[in-house]
Amino acid sequence: MGLWRVLLLLLLGLSFSESARAARALEVLWTDASDAVAMGQYHEAVALADAGLSKPDLDGPTRSRLLIARGLAYQALGTNEVAIADFTLALSVPALPAAERVKALFARGVALDSMGQLEDAAGDYSAVLRLAPGATYALNNRGNVRRRQGRLAEARQDYLAALAGL
């Protein structure tokens, strides 16, 4: 009976170790994809994110992080429709940490804004402000949207709030 316990503990240890290695490998792919975006290597970022997204048994936050990295790369490549789809999928995960939710919402807002979907963009900028009150970048962008919509009093209010936060 003691030998079976030892074998069981060894097997459990191996499976946990394998699971930890797989999680670390996915974290490396996400970090590498994010770094590739930061360095302007957008096609490489897409390939790295795709490699991670093809792995079975991805947890929600890891999937979302990879989608955000890929969305940012697609956005930089001018493929806003695909970027918006990636950001939307990433945001569908409830366990996504607030800081990453803010990043995805703002990026999606920028993509929507560039496609002329002003009200949707303003909605994403407002969502950023609910999660990160006083975020000057979201206030400024929402002000720009409101100005283009002719809603000058609201635009002025956002611009003044952004300036006050600097």
Number of strands: 0
List the total number of helices. Answer: 8
Q: How widely separated are the two ends?
A: 68 Å
Helix proportion of residues, in percent? Answer: over 70%
Structural overview:
The chain has 166 residues and is mainly α. It is elongated, with a radius of gyration of 20 Å. 81% of the residues lie in helices and 0% in strands.
Would you spell out the secondary-structure blueprint of this structure?
Blueprint: H1 2-38, H2 42-53, H3 60-76, H4 80-91, H5 98-114, H6 118-131, H7 136-148, H8 152-164
Helix pairs in contact: 1-2, 1-3, 2-3, 3-4, 3-5, 4-5, 5-6, 6-7, 7-8
In short:
This protein is mostly helical and 166 residues long. It has eight helices and no strands.
Features:
166 residues; elongated; mainly alpha
